[in-house]
Amino acid sequence: MKIGCHVSINGRIDKAPQRAYDLGCEVMQIFSRSPQGGNSSKVTPDIVEDFKIKNLKFKIAEVYIHAPYYINFASGNNRIQYGSVKAIQEELERASLLGAKYVMTHLGSAKDLGEEVGREKVIEMLIKTLEGYVGPAKLLLENSAGAGAIIGDDLKELAHIIKKVKNKNIAGICLDTQHSFASGYDWRDFDKTIKKIEKEIGIKNIKLIHANDSLTECGSNRDRHAHIGQGLIGLEAFQKIVSFAKENEIDMILETEHDEVVEDIKLLKSLRE
Question: Where does the chain have alpha helices with state H?
Answer without folding.
Answer: 16-23, 45-57, 78-98, 115-130, 155-165, 177-182, 190-200, 235-247, 261-272
